[in-house]
Design brief:
single chain, alpha+beta, 60s Ribosomal Protein L30, Chain: A, six-stranded mixed sheet, 6 strands, globular
Protein backbone atom coordinates (compact mmCIF):
# COMPACT_ATOMS: atom_id res chain seq x y z
CA UNK A 1 0.00 0.00 0.00
CA UNK A 2 1.32 3.43 -0.88
CA UNK A 3 0.21 6.84 0.31
CA UNK A 4 -3.20 7.81 -1.04
CA UNK A 5 -4.01 4.25 -2.07
CA UNK A 6 -5.94 1.77 0.08
CA UNK A 7 -6.20 -1.96 -0.57
CA UNK A 8 -9.66 -3.47 -0.06
CA UNK A 9 -9.95 -7.09 0.98
CA UNK A 10 -12.96 -9.01 2.26
CA UNK A 11 -13.59 -12.66 3.06
CA UNK A 12 -17.15 -12.16 1.74
CA UNK A 13 -15.74 -12.32 -1.81
CA UNK A 14 -13.28 -14.81 -3.27
CA UNK A 15 -9.65 -14.23 -2.41
CA UNK A 16 -7.49 -12.93 -5.23
CA UNK A 17 -6.11 -15.81 -7.32
CA UNK A 18 -3.06 -13.84 -8.43
CA UNK A 19 -0.96 -10.78 -7.63
CA UNK A 20 -3.82 -8.28 -7.46
CA UNK A 21 -6.22 -6.78 -4.90
CA UNK A 22 -9.97 -7.22 -4.78
CA UNK A 23 -10.19 -3.43 -5.03
CA UNK A 24 -8.08 -0.32 -4.64
CA UNK A 25 -9.40 3.00 -3.33
CA UNK A 26 -7.75 6.21 -4.48
CA UNK A 27 -9.47 9.32 -3.14
CA UNK A 28 -13.17 8.75 -3.68
CA UNK A 29 -12.66 6.27 -6.54
CA UNK A 30 -13.00 2.52 -6.03
CA UNK A 31 -11.38 0.30 -8.67
CA UNK A 32 -12.80 -3.23 -8.35
CA UNK A 33 -10.92 -6.08 -9.95
CA UNK A 34 -12.85 -8.38 -12.23
CA UNK A 35 -14.97 -10.90 -10.37
CA UNK A 36 -15.56 -14.40 -11.68
CA UNK A 37 -18.14 -16.85 -10.29
CA UNK A 38 -16.02 -18.29 -7.48
CA UNK A 39 -17.61 -19.23 -4.19
CA UNK A 40 -15.98 -17.21 -1.39
CA UNK A 41 -16.28 -20.28 0.85
CA UNK A 42 -14.77 -22.94 -1.42
CA UNK A 43 -12.85 -20.99 -4.05
CA UNK A 44 -14.52 -23.14 -6.71
CA UNK A 45 -16.55 -22.07 -9.76
CA UNK A 46 -20.29 -21.90 -9.07
CA UNK A 47 -22.77 -23.10 -11.70
CA UNK A 48 -20.48 -24.90 -14.13
CA UNK A 49 -21.91 -24.33 -17.61
CA UNK A 50 -24.81 -22.22 -16.26
CA UNK A 51 -24.44 -18.58 -17.33
CA UNK A 52 -27.34 -17.41 -15.13
CA UNK A 53 -25.94 -19.00 -11.95
CA UNK A 54 -22.46 -17.70 -12.77
CA UNK A 55 -23.69 -14.15 -13.38
CA UNK A 56 -25.61 -14.14 -10.07
CA UNK A 57 -22.44 -15.23 -8.24
CA UNK A 58 -20.30 -12.63 -10.00
CA UNK A 59 -22.73 -9.88 -8.98
CA UNK A 60 -22.78 -11.15 -5.36
CA UNK A 61 -18.98 -11.13 -5.31
CA UNK A 62 -18.83 -7.65 -6.80
CA UNK A 63 -21.37 -6.42 -4.24
CA UNK A 64 -19.27 -7.82 -1.38
CA UNK A 65 -16.17 -6.00 -2.64
CA UNK A 66 -18.10 -2.75 -3.10
CA UNK A 67 -19.50 -3.04 0.43
CA UNK A 68 -16.03 -3.63 1.84
CA UNK A 69 -15.00 -0.37 0.15
CA UNK A 70 -17.92 1.50 1.72
CA UNK A 71 -20.24 1.72 -1.25
CA UNK A 72 -22.79 -0.21 -3.28
CA UNK A 73 -24.09 -0.66 -6.80
CA UNK A 74 -25.63 2.82 -6.69
CA UNK A 75 -22.08 4.23 -6.61
CA UNK A 76 -20.84 2.35 -9.70
CA UNK A 77 -19.90 4.65 -12.58
CA UNK A 78 -18.48 2.08 -15.01
CA UNK A 79 -18.45 -1.68 -15.56
CA UNK A 80 -16.86 -3.99 -18.06
CA UNK A 81 -18.45 -7.36 -18.75
CA UNK A 82 -16.32 -10.09 -20.28
CA UNK A 83 -18.19 -13.03 -21.80
CA UNK A 84 -16.76 -16.28 -23.05
CA UNK A 85 -19.66 -16.40 -25.53
CA UNK A 86 -21.54 -13.33 -26.78
CA UNK A 87 -24.65 -15.49 -27.25
CA UNK A 88 -25.02 -15.28 -23.43
CA UNK A 89 -25.45 -11.50 -23.63
CA UNK A 90 -29.25 -11.42 -23.16
CA UNK A 91 -29.16 -13.65 -20.08
CA UNK A 92 -26.28 -11.73 -18.48
CA UNK A 93 -27.85 -8.38 -19.37
CA UNK A 94 -31.13 -9.36 -17.69
CA UNK A 95 -29.47 -10.42 -14.44
CA UNK A 96 -27.02 -7.50 -14.43
CA UNK A 97 -29.89 -5.06 -14.97
CA UNK A 98 -31.64 -6.19 -11.78
CA UNK A 99 -28.67 -4.88 -9.78
CA UNK A 100 -28.93 -1.45 -11.46
CA UNK A 101 -32.69 -0.73 -11.49
CA UNK A 102 -32.19 3.01 -12.10
CA UNK A 103 -29.36 5.14 -13.41
CA UNK A 104 -27.20 2.23 -14.59
CA UNK A 105 -23.48 2.87 -15.02
CA UNK A 106 -21.60 3.24 -18.27
CA UNK A 107 -20.63 -0.18 -19.57
CA UNK A 108 -18.70 -2.13 -22.15
CA UNK A 109 -19.34 -5.78 -22.97
CA UNK A 110 -16.80 -7.84 -24.87
CA UNK A 111 -16.28 -11.45 -25.78
CA UNK A 112 -13.01 -12.79 -24.39
CA UNK A 113 -11.10 -15.72 -25.87
CA UNK A 114 -10.84 -17.20 -22.38
CA UNK A 115 -11.56 -16.27 -18.78
CA UNK A 116 -9.83 -17.44 -15.58
CA UNK A 117 -10.67 -20.97 -14.44
CA UNK A 118 -13.01 -21.50 -17.38
CA UNK A 119 -15.56 -18.95 -16.14
CA UNK A 120 -18.30 -17.93 -18.55
CA UNK A 121 -18.45 -14.32 -17.28
CA UNK A 122 -16.28 -11.76 -15.48
CA UNK A 123 -17.29 -8.25 -14.43
CA UNK A 124 -15.20 -5.38 -13.07
CA UNK A 125 -16.33 -1.98 -11.83
CA UNK A 126 -15.26 1.54 -10.96
CA UNK A 127 -17.30 3.27 -8.29
CA UNK A 128 -17.35 6.78 -6.83
CA UNK A 129 -17.81 7.01 -3.07
CA UNK A 130 -19.84 9.97 -1.88
Amino acid sequence: MSEGRTVISTSSAPAAIGPYSQAIVVGNLVFCSGQIPLSPETGLIVGAGDIAAQTEQVMKNLHAVLQAAGCGFEHVARCTIYLSNMSDFATVNGIYGRFFPSSPPARTTIQAAGLPRGALVEIDAIAVRT
